Amino acid sequence: MSNQNTHLVNMFLGAIGKPAMTVIEVPDLGKVGVRTSMLLGERSKFYAERTTDTANALLLQKTVCDPVTGDLVLADLTLDQINSLPTHVVDPLLDMALPAIGIKKAVLEKEADKLLEAEELKNSETDQN
Predict the structure, then answer these.
(1) If you count Cβ atoms within 10 Å of the first and of the last residue's Cβ in the chain, which end, N or C, has fewer?
(2) Above pLDDT 90, what percent of the chain?
(3) Residue 62's closest CA among 88, 95, 24, 36?
(4) What is the CATH number of the domain that holds 83?
(5) On the CB side of 8, how many CA atoms lie within 13 Å of its CA?
(6) Is there a domain that residue 84 lies in?
(7) Count of domains in the chain?
(8) Record's superkingdom (predicted)?
(9) pLDDT value for 3
(10) 67 vs 24, 42, 51, 85, 106, CA distance in Å?
(11) Please, which pLDDT band fits residue 103 given cuts at 50, 70 and 90?
(12) In angstroms, rounded to a whole number, what is the distance separating the alpha carbons of residues 16 and 9?
């Protein structure tokens, strides 16, 4: 193996177990850490465990962390408890956490635009009738 390949392998090995994290300011909470990436196995588990009713709560449970240590802070809460949190608190967290499961903000904005266009078309058809 060449020195360049060995260096690259060592870089990969150095990344093991180190998901990326961002610290944000959340209303009513202050500074909160959010993992903006997951370990590959964690992401696979997330997709296997999620349901329509629990996907957002599960994402928060797997990504919201202590801003200093990186330890997950919602791991001991139930998904029902997390689902009971107000949106002004969780929306900024979800926005930051979506990349951890491979969802880019641009994709979400594109989907939102499609929904808005469909709603506007529906409303204009209703107005014409």
Answers:
(1) C
(2) 56
(3) 36
(4) 3.30.2220.20
(5) 5
(6) yes
(7) 1
(8) Bacteria
(9) 78
(10) 9, 20, 28, 19, 26
(11) confident
(12) 11
- Domain span at residue 94 reads 20-103
Q: What is the DSSP letter of 72?
A: B
41 occurs within a structural domain: yes
CA distance 51 to 67: 28
- The pLDDT tens digits of the residues spanning 35-81 come to 999 999 999 999 999 988 899 999 999 999 999 999 999 999 999 99
CA distances from 111 to 66, 79, 93 (A): 31, 26, 20
pLDDT bin (cut points 50, 70, 90) of residue 109 is low
Residue 25 located in a structural domain:
yes
On the 0-12 / 13-18 / 19+ scale of CB atoms within 10 A, 77 is: middle
